[in-house]
Every structure is written in structure tokens, then in C-alpha cells.
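Field log, afternoon session.

UNIT: design team B
ACTIVITY: writing a sequence onto a fixed backbone
BACKBONE:
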């Protein structure tokens, strides 16, 4: 029961009641606690546990019949289940799932293996980068100066295209 005191006369104490269901405020005519709210006729007008909050959108409202099926603001059926936030290990995208089930794909990169690291990434991190000696670097740069493209240089020097590209990029030839 929510009682408020009137500030009009300090000697006269006026009892003001408020319904938790419909938020109606009234001054009772009799002493004692009324059985029902005069506006909505609810017998549970003085029970404060009617407030409900949607965990998806944050909307708060008074529920008149226990747990409702949907949130009145966003319409979700899962208004009382906490959101689960997941992160894709491939692209780093974070999102909240609509259900408690594990998603099949990342919505950003569409990867099915969003929650596992790929073998390619783990092996490339552990694998040492091949070192190119000074002579190989000079040979690649001289072939670039002659006007050869990166694919031809890769075939001539028997280096991978990525290595040739990295040398050219580091020297500012691209």
C-alpha cells in the first residue's frame, strides 16, 4: 500500500492511496484499507510486485496477470531471459543472440566455424616467416627495375608470390 501525506494542512493528516495496477491515486472515504481500487476494481491494488521489466529492450510495465507472453514494447516472447552475447573468433564481431541456442553462423562473416580458431591461423602464427637473404632481395629488386611483374619474378626466383610481394612492398616499389 502506497500512502502519501497531504501538504495542505500539517495538523490534518490526509491519507492518499495509490493503486499499483493502474496508478490511480485517491483519498479513501473510510478508515482502514479498502478491498478494491475504485478505478480498476482490482483486489491486488496494494501489491507492489506487479512491475515487470523486459531484459531485451528495457521497457518497464505493470503486469496484471502474472508473467505476460510478450513485451508490449518490442514484442519478444523471451522478455525475461537474459541476453547472451557471443563473439566470432574469425572476424571479431560481437552480437546478441535471439535465443539461448548456439548460432550456426556469424552474421558478419557468415562463417560456420565462428567459435573455433582455424587451423590455418594457428599454424601460420607458429610457423616462422621465411627469411630472404640480401642477394635474393637484390635480385627481386633488379627484376622489378627491368619491368618484370611480380608473377614472373616469383617464377624466376622460385619464391612464393607473397614473399616477392612483401619485398616489393617493403622497398616501396608498389
Amino acid at each position: 500500500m502506497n500512502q502519501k501525506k497531504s501538504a495542505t494542512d500539517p495538523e490534518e493528516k490526509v491519507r492518499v492511496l495509490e493503486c499499483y495496477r493502474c496508478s490511480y491515486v485517491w483519498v479513501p472515504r473510510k478508515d482502514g484499507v479498502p478491498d478494491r481500487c475504485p478505478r480498476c476494481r482490482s483486489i491486488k491494488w496494494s501489491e507492489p510486485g506487479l512491475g515487470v521489466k523486459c531484459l531485451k529492450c528495457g521497457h518497464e510495465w505493470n503486469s496484471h496477470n502474472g508473467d505476460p507472453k510478450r513485451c508490449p514494447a518490442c514484442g519478444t516472447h523471451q522478455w525475461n531471459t537474459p541476453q547472451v552475447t557471443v563473439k566470432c573468433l574469425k572476424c571479431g564481431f560481437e552480437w546478441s543472440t535471439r535465443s539461448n541456442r548456439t548460432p550456426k553462423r556469424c552474421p558478419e562473416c557468415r562463417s560456420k566455424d565462428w567459435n573455433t580458431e582455424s587451423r590455418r591461423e594457428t599454424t601460420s602464427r607458429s610457423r616462422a616467416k621465411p627469411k630472404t637473404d640480401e642477394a635474393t632481395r637484390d635480385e627481386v629488386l633488379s627484376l622489378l627495375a627491368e619491368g618484370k611483374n611480380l608473377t614472373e619474378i616469383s617464377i624466376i626466383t622460385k619464391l612464393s608470390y607473397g614473399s616477392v610481394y612483401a619485398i616489393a612492398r617493403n622497398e616501396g616499389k608498389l
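LOG NOTE: The first strand starts at residue 2 and ends at 5.
NEXT ACTIVITY: expression trials, pending approval
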